Amino acid sequence: MRRQHYQRKGFLIAIISACLPAAIIGMILYVVGTQQIEAEGQKTHRNQVAYATERINENLNHLESIMAQWSFNLNLSSSYKDLDLYKDYRSTRSIYQALSWIKSSDPLIQEVTLYLDKQQVLIKESTGITGIESIEEKQLYRALASYQRDVYWTNRLAPRKENVPYTLVVRIPGGLVETEAALIIDVSAKQLNALIAELDSEGTGATLLMQQDGGIVSLGATDIHQPTALDQTLMKSVKGQKTEHASSVESWDGEAYSVSYGQMKRIENMWIIAAATPLEQMTKPVQTVSRVMILTGCFGILLALFLSWYSYRHMYQPVQRLMQQLLPGRAAVTTDEFATIADEWKHLSRESQILQERVDQQLPSLRENFLLQLLQGHLSFLSENELADRMAQYGWEISDRVFAVLAVQMHGIYRSEGKFSQGDEQLVTFAAVNITQELTKGKGLEANTVNFQDMTLGILIRQPANMSVESIQSSLFHLAEELAHTLNSLLKLEVTVSVGTRTSELRRLPVLFDDARSALNYRKLGEEQQILDVNELIPGGHDAIMYPFEEESLLLKALRSGNEEELTQRLDEFLRLLKNQSVIELGVRQGLLQLCSNMLNTIMISGYNPLALNEGLDMWEQLAEVREPEAVLAWMKQHIIEPYVSRLHSTQDMQLKQLIENVLQTIHTNYAKDISLEGCADLHGTYSKKLSLGFKQVTGQTFIDYLTQFRLNQAKKLLVETDEKINDIAMQVGYQPPYFNRLFKKYEGITPGQYREKADQL
Question: Membrane-crossing residues (predicted)?
Fold first, then answer.
């Protein structure tokens, strides 16, 4: 009962704490704050009008400015007086384009018209060229073009144009030059009205934009030809005002209004923006909110007292579920759950820290094992990018780096002055690795050491790619000399260091290291310290070799992977290159026999017995009887490649099926948890690309599709067989409720609730 008392008490305190302050604040606002809010509302209204005045002034200034700029940009190569609109097609087209650009340059522009004085025509982008027929219109447009100002506003065209109260006129050219044309810009009444109407978003007051002499430019949402009584009152109130900004309280029809206005200077005139808003509209929301807060607070307190006994159980359901997850199978606690959750969280945090420390402890071993496999060529199935990704995961910086290898071998353990004895090979190698690591670390080199447990160790050095070959070789030889001297001094053994070449490709490291280890065979007996250069000890011969080595390397790689299609292509290409390099039949046959021998060697290294694959067939005896190169190739395909690939695929398929079975078991057991392709790959000792392809091959579905379908099937069972809430079911199958609902609708075509109702009706 202690736990229930704690939960009930906490719930009551939360309800009272939430509702009682709201009720008190509502009473204070209702009784004390109304007048203050009216004053603040009036101030806000004045600031709002001032801001709107500034914003509209900026829009009109922008319009005037860009029109003045366009008046200079519209000058043609010849004057408008000499322009023939029907013959000078290029000039006419440029005028149309310019009018279109002008119209789109400002949202306040409704229409742009170019008036040509001599031609007595109007040019519009929308309607084209229109002649001026009546004498009255000719006089009107000529008067507009000969006005004393270059840019000015006028309403003289308003009677002729619907919904265009004012027009901006720009003379071309301006100044003292005789005017040949004029730009007539019709301001969009809709856009201007929308800007003014924003001051009265509720539609309960009035807004206007007028000239100082009383000319109406806009009444916001009201037609300027049909002003309301409130509009007329607002006009009288602000007409003739001299101050830039002001506000006052006016009465109309028994109601008080807050009236605010602002002025903005236009060409030759002063325009006024004004707005009238009912004071009751400003204070009504506050009064309503205050009353609602009082009623809500009081009602919430009463309702909380009656419902607390029932509601606390539902409030604590998430806590109880969390407790069940944290303490599965344990007895219910007698203290409050939050203290228990905190203790359990600390416990899980400690376990997580311990696991992280274990991972950190194992990381050096994992890195060394990876490097050992890489240098020994066991990772040849990985591409260059995959190798780079693996190395980046282990914390190696490999971008803009080249790689060099050193091989170190120690001898004379039987003559080590009693310091080491037979059987201490692993101990000697371990000591040499530690000494090497300390030496390279002290020099700040990016180096990693591999222990081969046989008095031999390898060193992989990463160096900047922008270093010259001479600098790299020099640094490698300095390191080799210091390493040989240090190991010889400390271990009292003969030390030989083989310096290999450099490469920027990770896939070539096994070849480089094999060369470095092979060079150790050229050491001189009895010398305590030796430095060997691979480039000098294993030089290239001068005889022409008629053999496609590179193609053989690619062919053997395809053989190891079991890619039969690529093998066939590589064999044909190998024979073609061999024929091109050696036109003599004997040379071609010897090349094919050499390839056959290397293929058998590769098969044996892979762990397969060629005799078992061919049931004891004497391959060399049969092969000696085949004369034609194409026949030799066909024989190799039949008796070597096909049996090996078949056995390899059989083994790989069985391993792949076992892997996928284990992954499926993981999904079926842990589908409610956070499962990913990468996590399953790490769990089962493989990599994500292989698992993805294998999963699709075995199940016919992608990993994510299978996981999603399995989870939805489990959810459908719970929807039909239980009465649990849909949100709880979503959590049980590993989804958040909103995402679960969308996913269920996508796959099933109906929502989870509709699925349950449909199942209940069956």
Answer: 12-33, 292-312
pLDDT of residue 85: 75
Half-sphere exposure of 225 toward its Cβ, with a 13 Å CA cutoff? 7
Q: Comparing C-alpha atoms, which of 281, 283, 242, 238 is closest to residue 261?
A: 238
CA dist 19 → 6, 285, 434 (Å): 20, 20, 70
Measured CA to CA, the distance from residue 706 to residue 698 in angstroms comes to 12
- Percentage of the chain modeled with pLDDT above 70: 75
Q: Which of 610, 612, 588, 611 has its CA nearest to residue 600?
A: 610
How would you write 581-626 as a 3-class SS string?
A: HCCCHHHHHHHHHHHHHHHHHHHHHCCCCHHHHCCCCCHHHHHHCC
Provide the β-strand partners of residue 75: none
pTM above 0.90, yes or no: no
pLDDT tens for 618-648 read: 677 777 767 677 888 888 887 778 877 777 7
Cis peptide preceding 328, ω within 30 of 0: no
The position carrying tokens 């008036």 is 115
Measure the CA–CA gap between 690 and 655, rounded to whole angstroms.
Answer: 12
The angle that helices 549-561 and 585-605 make with each other, rounded to 10 degrees, is: 40
Instruction: Please give the pLDDT value at position 307.
Output: 61
Residue with tokens 């008490």: 9
Please, what is the end-to-end C-alpha distance for the chain in angstroms?
44
Rounded to whole angstroms, the Cα distance separating 325 from 25 reads: 42
Q: Tens digits of per-residue pLDDT, 10-34?
A: 556 655 655 666 566 656 655 555 5
Q: Which of 174-183, 323-332, 387-396 has the lowest mean pLDDT?
A: 323-332
The one-letter amino acid at 234: L
| Residue 115 to residues 95, 109, 732, Cα–Cα distance (Å) | 11, 17, 76
Residues forming beta bridges with residue 494, ordered by sequence position: 411
Residue 745 exposed, middle or buried by CB count within 10 Å (0-12, 13-18, 19+): middle
Q: How far apart are CA 510 and CA 557, in angstroms?
A: 13
Report the alpha-carbon angle 328-330-332, nearest 5: 110
Question: Which distant-in-sequence residues (6+ apart) come within 8 Å of 272 by Cβ?
Answer: 208, 209, 210, 211, 212, 238, 239, 241, 261, 262, 263
Written as six digits, the tokens of 683 are 């769990």
Tokens of 286: 């506050």
What is the distance between the alpha carbons of residues 502 and 499, in angstroms, rounded to a whole number?
10
- What is the three-class DSSP state of 631? helix
3-class DSSP state for residue 55?
A: helix
Query: Are the CB atoms for 156 and 215 separated by under 8 Å?
Result: no
590-607: pLDDT as tens digits: 888 888 888 888 878 777
Question: Contact, 432 vs 410, CB < 8 A?
Answer: yes
- Average pLDDT (194-215) is 77
Task: Please return the burial class of 31, using the count of CB atoms within 10 Å of its CB with bins 0-12, 13-18 and 19+.
Answer: exposed
pLDDT over 60 (residue 566): yes
In 10 A of CB 302, how many CB atoms?
Answer: 11
Q: Which pLDDT tens digit goes with each residue over 692-717?
A: 887 887 788 889 888 999 999 999 99
Residue 718, pLDDT above cutoff 80: yes
Q: Which residues contact 396 (CB under 8 A, 6 or more apart)?
A: 367, 448, 462
Q: What is the pLDDT of residue 2?
A: 45
Cα 359 from Cα 682, distance rounded (Å)? 13
CA torsion 160-162-167-170 (nearest 10°) is -60
Count of C-beta atoms within a 10 Å radius of residue 4: 12
SS3 letters for 234-280? HHHHHCCCCCCEEEEEEEECCEEEEEEEEEEEECCEEEEEEEEEEHH
**Residue pair 502/491 in contact by the 8 Å Cβ criterion:** no
